[in-house]
Amino acid sequence: MTTEPRTSTASRDTAGAGWVRPLCWTAVALEGFDLVVIGVVMPVLLRDPAWDLDPAGASVVVTVGLLGVMVGALAVGPVADVIGRRRTMIATVTAFSVLTLACAFAPNPEVLGVLRFLAGLGLGGVLPVALALVAEYAPSGRGSSATTIMMTGYHVGAVLTALLGILLIGSFGWPAMFVAGTIPALVLVPLIVLRLPESAEYLARKNGERDSSWRGERRNPVATLFRDGLARPTIAFWVASFMGLLLVYGLNTWLPEIMRSAGYALGAALALLLVLNVGAVLGLLLAGTVANRIGVRPATIAWFAAATLFLALLSIKLPGIGVYVSVLLAGVFVFSAQVLVYAYVSQLYPAEGRGTALGTASGVGRLGAIVGPILGGALLQAGIANPWGFYVFAIVAALGAVAVAAVGRAPARA
């Protein structure tokens, strides 16, 4: 059986361990900001004669930003596994914060698109590194809940960005949103420099505390994903992550419009989007606890299966509060299913390849983040989003469950 090599207790920064979760939570909240900020400013830009921007051009800007995030996520894992996760976190947070600030001064859609792509390169690297550090420093037996609690920052950041849009755009214009998104980094980056500990496993490796057999292989962390029986789990995780992020981005983009096509008023449709994200936070808090008790594999399969059921049920127009309860339950399972995939990846792979495994799963999943809005838009354009949009998303969730089941029961790692 393959196990992780020993890590000296001297290499673990016990004083800094308490800072890992709050600093990583804050960094992930800034990614939640990025999820919503372009949607908040785009209605203003579409109506600005100086920009001459139409919906097709706006879609290009959004898609280019997501491509940058995908490339950043794919690239960051091997880099972090080689140079260390602390330095990678400092670099990625600094880079995307500076480039987000630059977006406030973009003179046209072309420059904004370039800046969004470059900012996405840094932004895509934050989540895999944060997940790897939180998984490593989580208390024994609580890795799943540590991961899901950290991911609540993603949705908190999204909600706060929407509120900032209400407060800032009318008085200060759309550039104020990008400036506001940079301000937290003025505090976060110095705190990361001063307080975030390095990965204990990385320090042990650097100090020569690893056995010599692995030391000869460490220059290719990608190889870790395909040896020792991990090739099938790696592919299965990529598929599951693709399906999970397709659901997250597809529903966040198009749920209000799909509900309107189902006959709900605009106010109710927007309220349902808020309810969906409230369910996401509740689901994240619940999913980690359940995974700690029954195991992350059965919990992830169950979460995707429940998402399948509740997404299909949304095709039924329920009276009164029934639709809100149904959307809330869909949010509980849809969003946290994807986070449980990350938790499963964190537990299955050896420490030397964990950052790479998380980075590739996140990067491939970003393809789903691009496909989700395109798929929802195509269904709306065809006039079949209700009810077939819900059925299609339910099928996607079912495929996620099948992919997780295909991971199998790989050998446990110390």
UniProtKB/TrEMBL annotation:
Membrane topology summary: Multi-pass membrane protein
Keywords: Membrane, Transmembrane, Transmembrane helix
Primary subcellular site in the record, as a coarse category: membrane
Transmembrane domains' residue ranges: 23-46, 58-77, 89-107, 113-135, 147-170, 176-196, 235-255, 261-287, 299-316, 322-345, 357-382, 388-408
Subcellular location: Cell membrane
Protein name (record): Aromatic acid/H+ symport family MFS transporter
One Pfam family this sequence matches: MFS_1
Domain (Major facilitator superfamily (MFS) profile): residue spans on this chain: 20-412
